[in-house]
Design a protein that fits this description.
about 550 residues, mainly alpha, two-stranded parallel sheet, 25 helices, 4 strands
């Protein structure tokens, strides 16, 4: 029975973006299977949480991301970039695709993304952080909004953006080498952008309500699967593990007709990834890469290699689990769990038996036990992370535990699971307050309301603290990138002027940042990518120098 409306309800309703009204959740209570978010006096349990402040709170991670995007102007080519830029300039997209497919690694989709930023030269590297960062934020924003819509949940204004911004900031910046993870385009497109693009393929499925929409979702799943399969082996592994988990659990987690549609979508996505992975694996470039690292199937799947991968993945987990900034994702999830509410339209559609009835999922026996689904998600993360380590081990060896740039393929899943864990915690706190409301009034009810309010305040404070904790090392990185950019620009001018005068051999001083590869690294011992630098400046070769021009 709906709670009695207090006399001040009209005033509450006139306040745009104000507290959640008790009558809203009262209407949705039968659908949710729980009591409304209100106490016996008609006062909403969450009405002391200032939801108007959510857009202001979202400004913190957005400002942090804005700073990170602005710092991208200091990026300059290095390592593999030296070899990519001359090919894109001289041979165009066809030459870049041929280089990847026939010589390097078989990643055709990767070559297309390299062309997308490499065609603009140095400017493409400087704009990469802004463009890729906005795309990743937009995808995660749409993913969270679509997931809430599919689950028939609504959120106050600014909450979805807050969750997406916190998840993006933590994913990109909570790392020991943000430059290689985010700012270095050659690495970012393979291990940071790729899992976000995989998430984008899920959005049409979550939003599909008509036959045409479901057909579009299947087409996107197939194309995205092939693209991911030829973009990153590690991301393909993560996607296959998650799709297998969904297929296994769909009979107990997805209701009615949506179960069959979900299984068909997963099957199409698996087919796409397998096709893409086959194109990559059978390519001459991938075969050359395997020969270079001695990475045949016997070596990779041997007992020693599997044991080494397990130890390396244990070291990776030790680093990740002790990085406190990931708590920002949990805090954002807590706010999500405290403030979302059931959309009453879901119950109306089910009563009418209209289109979309029964499509809200996860549902069913297992869907009503979200903790089990969350634990399965973490198990999938562990399996996928270990398999990614197995795949990366031949190229990186034992150093894979010290190469956070290759962890992004499975760390995005970890961040999203932390958001889900926080959301379940928020719902648990809210449920406890509801039970307190049903048992008694007065002091115990006030305690329940106060618990929810304090929890929201702590979560908001933790979001703010996380942003500060991520900003401090980002400022230090900006200073290092600024120094490198100035030195790089000075040397670039000198080399261009020397080449214009007709010089064929010029001195080069390595200018590195965050461990990036440079010609004559290790005090002049490593030449690579010296020949690529010479080609970039139209020289025959460069020689080692310890003094900048």
């Amino acid at each position: 029975m709906a709670a009695e409306t207090p006399k001040t309800t009209d005033d509450e309703r006139q306040r745009g973006g104000g507290p959640i009204r008790p009558d809203d959740d009262a209407e949705a209570a039968p659908d949710a299977g729980t009591a409304p978010d209100s106490d016996r006096t008609g006062r909403c349990v969450t009405n002391r949480i200032p939801v108007r402040a959510l857009p202001l709170l979202a400004l913190l991670p957005l400002a942090l991301l804005g700073l990170a995007f602005w710092i991208g102007r200091l990026v300059r080519p290095g390592a593999d970039d030296w070899c990519f830029l001359p090919v894109v300039r001289d041979e165009g997209a066809a030459g870049m695709i041929a280089k990847f497919y026939l010589q390097d690694n078989g990643r055709v989709a990767n070559s297309l993304l390299v062309v997308a930023y490499g065609a603009f030269g140095v400017a493409g590297h400087q704009w990469f952080a802004l463009v890729s960062g906005v795309v990743m934020l937009g995808v995660l924003w749409a993913l969270v909004a679509s997931a809430l819509g599919r689950a028939r949940l609504t959120a106050p204004r600014g909450l979805v953006l807050l969750v997406a911004a916190m998840a993006t900031a933590v994913f990109l910046l909570a790392t020991s080498n943000t430059y290689k993870v985010f700012y270095w385009p050659a690495s970012s497109v393979s291990h940071t952008v790729s899992p976000v693009l995989a998430c984008a393929a899920v959005i049409p499925l979550l939003r599909a309500r008509t036959r045409r929409g479901r057909g579009l979702a299947l087409g996107v799943a197939l194309v995205a699967g092939v693209f991911i399969g030829t973009l990153s082996e590690e991301t393909a592994v993560v996607v296959l593990v998650l799709l297998a988990a969904v297929l296994l659990l769909s009979h107990r987690a997805v209701p009615g007709p949506a179960r069959t549609r979900t299984r068909v979508w997963c099957g199409v996505a698996v087919a796409g990834v397998v096709i893409g992975a086959a194109i990559l694996y059978l390519s001459p470039g991938a075969r050359t890469r395997r020969e270079r690292f001695g990475a045949d199937s016997t070596t990779i799947l041997g007992p020693q290699a599997l044991g080494d991968a397990l130890r390396s993945f244990g070291d990776i987990l030790g680093t990740v689990l002790t990085t406190w900034q990931y708590l920002g994702a949990v805090a954002a999830g807590v706010l999500l769990g405290l403030l979302v509410r059931r959309d009453g339209r879901g119950a109306e559609e089910r009563e009418r038996g209209g289109q979309g009835a029964g499509d809200a999922w996860p549902d069913g026996p297992l869907g009503r036990r979200p903790l089990v689904l969350l634990l399965v998600g973490f198990l999938a993360f562990l399996i996928a992370g270990y398999l990614c380590t197995v795949v990366a081990l031949p190229a990186f060896g034992g150093n894979v535990a010290n190469a956070p740039r290759v962890w992004g393929d499975f760390l995005l899943l970890y961040v999203l699971l932390l958001v889900c864990a926080g959301a379940l915690l928020g719902r648990a706190l809210l449920g406890r307050a509801r039970r307190s409301r049903r048992r008694a009034t007065g002091a115990r009810t006030a305690t329940g309301v106060r618990t929810v309010t304090v929890s929201a305040a702590v979560a908001a404070a933790l979001c703010a603290l996380t942003c500060v904790g991520l900003a401090v090392p980002l400022f230090r990185l900006e200073q290092q990138m600024d120094v490198r950019a100035q030195r790089w620009d000075r040397q670039d001018r000198s080399l261009r002027e020397g080449a214009a005068r007709g010089a064929r051999v010029l001195p080069y001083t390595p200018v590195s940042v965050s461990g990036m590869g440079e010609p004559f690294g290790g005090n002049g011992k490593r030449l690579w990518p010296g020949q690529c630098v010479a080609r970039y400046y139209h020289l025959e070769k460069i020689t080692y120098s310890t003094r900048l021009p």
